[in-house]
Amino acid sequence: MKLAILPGDGIGPEIVAQAVKVLNALKLNISMTEAPIGGAGYEAAGDPLPDATLELAKDSDAVLLGAVGDWKYDKLERHLRPERGLLRIRKELNLFANLRPALLYPELANASTLKPEVVSGLDLMIIRELTGDIYFGHPRGISTLGNGEREGINTMRYNESEIRRIGRVAFDIAMKRNKKVCSVDKANVLETTELWRQVMIELSAEYPEVELSHMYVDNAAMQLIRAPKQFDVMVTGNIFGDILSDEASMLTGSIGMLPSASLDANNKGMYEPSHGSAPDIAGKDIANPLATILSVAMMLRHTFNDEVNALSVENAVKTALAQGYRTADIVTDGCKKVGCSAMGDAVVAALN
Ligand code: IPM
Ligand code: MG
């Protein structure tokens, strides 16, 4: 099995190093090759997604990514910015299905800003479409009108087949869970999502056992905070999923806990924490590596079909938490506060 390691920027290299530690401890037959992406790609090759990095990713069975972005690149032309490298690799590899589970570990019930009774037992799977929507639609850009005023344009668009294939992922996953899908849209205002809703309803005919519900995105944002346990699988478009998954992450105590998988039609995948590159804390050994380590578990499960090792990694994370180890973002009373690298070591020790 071939794995491409793309640490990226900010805390990316530190958290990825911990995930690699865990992978190495499993002693699997996986060859790993590292390459730059994001700001690191720009520094190395003048491109946030260097050709060699894209080739490596295409040639690998899976990609493990840290995070991209740093304020120091904000002044670059848009096509050279780190985020563009991430969006391009998602598109080039056709990783249309983004799985973002929000699971509350009982040990962290007090780390959430919400009351423990609201979040305890939370197990929600957000499925975000990742290669369409306003992120990729044309026309787009900033232009100057005849009167000299500037105008910005982005285009929200989805075709039927794009909606159907992400819907199918959601229904299939729901069949292995509690058989409930909530499709999130803004069908009262946006035609794109009116079509989204119609296609989800059509598709649901093929899944009689799954209960399909619909929710407007503004209400969904509220319900996630009010009563998050009402959800099992939530499926939504690219931009709504971007926003709602950040919101859902805080239910689990910290965005530093949320892994993600981005899959193509054949379960080739890119695995990355749901959080960003956090340049403000980079290089200080205080970042939380658990989202990246949990992304490795998702990789073992979804791409390598290795449920046994996926569970070992998840259990090792649980053990480290139960032993009281906490990074700065999830500190609770009486815990053992550790840095990024020591948290990686605690997970490895728990594996053994
Ligand atoms: C995410 C991030 C990215 C996105 C950014 C960095 C481009 O926020 O993965 O959620 O918007 O998709
Ligand atoms: Mg985001």
N- to C-terminal separation?
Answer: 23 Å
> Which strand-content bin applies to the residues?
15-25%
Indicate the mean pLDDT.
96
Let me know the CATH homologous superfamily of the domain at 1-104 and 259-352.
Isopropylmalate Dehydrogenase
Morphology: globular
How many strands, what sense, and barrel or not for the largest sheet? 10 strands, mixed
**How large is the radius of gyration?**
20 Å
Order of helices and strands: EHEHHEHEHEEEHEHEHEHEEHHEEH
Which descriptors apply to this entry?
352 residues; two-stranded antiparallel ribbon; alpha/beta; globular; 14 strands; binds 3-isopropylmalic acid; binds magnesium ion; Isopropylmalate Dehydrogenase
Can you walk through the features of this model?
With 352 residues, the chain is of the alpha/beta class. It has a domain at 1-104 and 259-352: 3-Layer(aba) Sandwich (Isopropylmalate Dehydrogenase), CATH 3.40.718.10. Helices cover 40% and strands 20% of the residues. It is built from 12 helices and 14 strands. Strands 2-1-3-12-11-4-5-10-8-9 form a 10-stranded mixed β-sheet, sandwiched between helices. α1 (12-26) packs across α10 and α10 packs antiparallel against α11. The longest helix has 16 residues, at 160-175. The protein is globular, with a radius of gyration of 20 Å. The mean pLDDT is 96. Magnesium ion (MG) binds at residues 242, 246.
